[in-house]
Amino acid sequence: MKNTSRLLALLVLAASSHALAEDTSVSYNGQRVSLEANKAPINTVKNPDAIAQLPAGHHFVVPGSFTVAVAALNSPPLTVFSDDNKTLLGSEVDIARLVADSLGLKLNVVPASWEDWPLGVASGKYDAAISNITVTRDRKEKFDFATYRKDSLGFYVKTSSPIKSLTKAEDIAGLRIIVGSGTNQEAILLAWDKENQAKGLKAFTPIYAKDDAAQTLALQAGRADAYFGPNVIGAWKAALTGKTRLVGSVDGGWPKAAHIAVTVKKGSGLAEPISTALNGVIGNGDYQKVLNRWGEGVEKIDRSEINPAGLGD
Fold this sequence. Notes:
Blueprint: H1 2-22, E1 25-28, E2 31-34, H2 48-52, E3 65-71, E4 80-81, E5 88-89, H3 91-102, E6 106-112, H4 117-123, E7 128-129, E8 143-150, E9 152-158, E10 176-178, H5 184-198, E11 205-207, H6 212-220, E12 226-230, H7 231-241, E13 244-251, E14 259-265, H8 271-284, H9 286-293
Parallel strand pairs: 3-6, 3-7, 10-11, 10-12
Antiparallel strand pairs: 1-2, 4-5, 8-14, 9-12, 9-13
């Protein structure tokens, strides 16, 4: 029976992977998103105000370039490898390009793991990280932030799951939930779990699966009850395969709203010009073009802020 279940899960996973390779467009959040069409970059103009705010004598990692750590995962619409298996596409890369163009710099994208960006930014290996990073109180002790998108998280379950709703602490009691280690969504689940155990409810079990394939397999094979992560990633997969469905949404700064931000070394002086650059592309419409073509228009912000309140504030 176990072998049969595993084979079924592998077939589902293979079908899902095949769908991504063959069907490069999907509709969700009221947008039709085409990977093929989105290979073409969206560029913007230089922003003199942002350039003037760059710290005098600042040394970029690569002279004349904006070196950005971007998650090296196939997690569309945020990041996805092009058909050459080398070039990263996605809204995160597009946002990085808008900032680089605004600052009069070339874009140097470095694929990186989630675990790598904090040390990489702090040590000067990268000028910035753009990897769906949420502003949190703890992170602001080491990094500066310039926001560019709302943080919305979603709970997704297998389409045939009996689970109807996951929106509050008691809903996760006793469940096995796929979540990224060191993420704000993990912090939310741990806070909920603490509440639940104080009430005598069953503990939840975190399932740490680093890549999309492992997450898909765990959920479809029944080794996990739900996935909790960026809502746009969950929405993409649900629309593409029809194998999962949304059962709850939570603000990334629970119980308050929080934003995703370009992350730079504390005190580097880059947050201000980057925020000015972002506000420039918000004003000229290029920012909306990027979010809309990746189905993320529902998470747009009206203005970039530096180090706003976040999770834990």
